[in-house]
């Protein structure tokens, strides 16, 4: 179902579709962006994550074609692309590069034998581009759902997430985890999903239906060094597993190590591998604890766990930065904020705070001002509740 703002967006998309193609759009799909409540840098350690879909989405309106071609007009870029499904390649034309996610999905769905013969489409999104709320996953998942629908098929939502991940890895060439595609595809309104990234199963965990919102704040800090730091952390986690295997031969990833097991042999790990392992192992436990706290309706405990997560990411995992710390500090200074932490890979990007609705106004006024005083940067806020995952809406 569309929310009020999506309904308005769809009206514009429909009229754009008419102008572009001289006919009406028959099918409409939506897929949301996402935010991770807790469970950071646990996914590539086979651990748990706890994301929610947000009330920002990609909408695609389309009608079938029969000539093996896909034409798409991107409202956000005011630009069209046209490609043949057979032999589709990524484009390096900067004006059309946004279409690589659409091309990627056409490529992977064809490889999976979905039988579609082309489409005219208009795509439009209000997930901020490139700020860590996964506009790319929203685009992949919505596109996949479109091609399945045009093929007259249904698709299992976990399969859709896996295909979107393959598309991004193999066609776009970015080595991503499964979380973003998974939550965009399977998100549940008013719930976060506790996802086991090893088994790819999940448990829906209820968020309070009233009284509290998630507030995402973008630092607007341009990220540098993310890729090389990311690779370093991954290899430090692998080193930790190799050393810990001497004591615990049954483990294959940090996910298999309990907090107590790690504490017992911590000194065997050299710095900074020890600190990295400590973050991952404690964060994995915090993620499970947060799911329990949400089920118990214990928001104070949730906030505590979020705060601890930030401290662990900053000190032990060393992926925070001054801007994230300032923004988290500003959020925590507002009465009615249960907790705040960085969310996403780090070195910039966004924070997430759990905020009592009665505190939202003060938060919106004070936090950006405090942050601007400290850094000279503008924090952009997104207030959201947990939204439904991808769906066909027409
Ligand atoms: P993030 O996923 O954090 O938002 P990415 O760099 O992974 O950032 O993905 C952003 C890219 O996804 C854009 O550069 C564009 O290629 C594609 N994209 C996302 N939303 C749209 C949109 N509304 N229209 C066209 N392309 C989009
Ligand atoms: Mg992305």
How would you describe this structure to a colleague?
41% of the residues lie in helices and 22% in strands. It has helices spanning 4-21, 100-111, 135-150, 157-172, 179-186, 226-244, 259-265, 273-295, 299-315, 322-332, 360-375; strands at 27-36, 48-49, 51-64, 69-74, 79-84, 118-125, 191-196, 201-206, 212-218, 337-343, 350-356, 380-384, 391-392. The strands form three sheets. A six-stranded mixed sheet has the order 5-4-6-3-1-13, with helices on both faces. A four-stranded antiparallel sheet has the order 10-11-9-12. The chain has a three-stranded antiparallel sheet with strand order 2-7-8, with helices on both faces. The longest helix is centred in the last third of the chain and has 23 residues, at 273-295. Adenosine-5'-diphosphate binds next to strand 6 and helix 3.
Key terms:
394 residues; four-stranded antiparallel sheet; Ribosomal Protein S5, domain 2; 2 domains; binds adenosine-5'-diphosphate; single chain; Alpha-Beta Plaits
Measured between the Cα atoms of the first and last residue, the distance is 9 Å
For the secondary structure, the number of strands is 13
Tally of helical segments: 11
CATH class of the largest domain: Alpha Beta
CATH topology of the largest domain: Ribosomal Protein S5, domain 2
Describe the strand arrangement of the main beta sheet, using strand numbers. 5-4-6-3-1-13
